[in-house]
């Protein structure tokens, strides 16, 4: 399964650690930026999730994994590829590749759980989200 969605991420001075490369914790932020862009562009709900106005539906991260392959420097151009390989009933994974001109710098995965903001409990993935992701990813 290939990555059909990619977004550019700017490496900021504050991303760099004392070793002169992007700090390991920053990759979670890069994943988040790519995930929100994906949701905005594919599902049309990224901004609503951030503002809390998405008809009572939210999502939380249940799991986060990062595998580091090579360092990213401040001068690197960075793109993050993101995809959803499958959908569950109330959760689904996002897979990521952090890419520079030198190749893949890191890979990762987050598992998100959809939840009802009013009851603060998990809920089924909204049907419009499911339809949009299924169509985009060819699931």
Structure description:
With 139 residues, this protein is α+β, with helices and mostly antiparallel strands. It contains three helices and six strands; from the N terminus they run βααβββββα. It has a single domain, classed as Hotdog Thioesterase (Thiol Ester Dehydrase, Chain A), CATH 3.10.129.10. Strands 1, 2, 3, 4, 5 and 6 form a six-stranded antiparallel β-sheet that branches. The longest helix has 18 residues, at 26-43. It is globular.
What is the CATH class designation? Alpha Beta
**Major sheet summary line:** 6 strands, antiparallel
What is the count of structural domains?
A: 1
**CATH fold description:** Thiol Ester Dehydrase, Chain A
CATH superfamily: Hotdog Thioesterase
Query: What structural class should be given to the helix and strand makeup?
Result: alpha+beta
Give the helix proportion (percent range). Answer: 25-40%
Silhouette: globular
Strand content: 35-45%
Q: Give the overall pLDDT as a whole number.
A: 92
Distance between the termini: 10 Å
Q: Any guess at the CATH architecture?
A: Roll
Order of helices and strands: EHHEEEEEH
Poorly predicted regions are: none
What is the CA-based Rg, rounded? Answer: 16 Å
Number of helices: 3
Give the beta-strand count.
Answer: 6
């Amino acid at each position: 399964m290939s990555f059909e969605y990619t977004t550019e991420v700017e490496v900021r001075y504050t991303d760099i650690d004392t070793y002169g490369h992007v700090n390991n914790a920053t990759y979670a932020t890069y994943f988040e930026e790519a995930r929100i862009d994906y949701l905005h562009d594919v599902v049309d709900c990224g901004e609503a999730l951030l503002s809390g106005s998405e008809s009572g539906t939210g999502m939380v991260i249940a799991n986060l994994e990062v595998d580091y392959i090579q360092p990213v420097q401040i001068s690197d151009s960075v793109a993050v590829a993101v995809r959803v390989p499958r959908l569950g009933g109330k959760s689904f994974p996002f897979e990521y590749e952090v890419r520079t001109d030198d190749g893949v710098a890191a890979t990762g995965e987050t598992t998100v759980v959809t939840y009802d903001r009013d009851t603060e409990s998990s809920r089924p993935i909204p049907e419009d989200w499911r339809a949009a992701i299924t169509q985009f990813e060819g699931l």
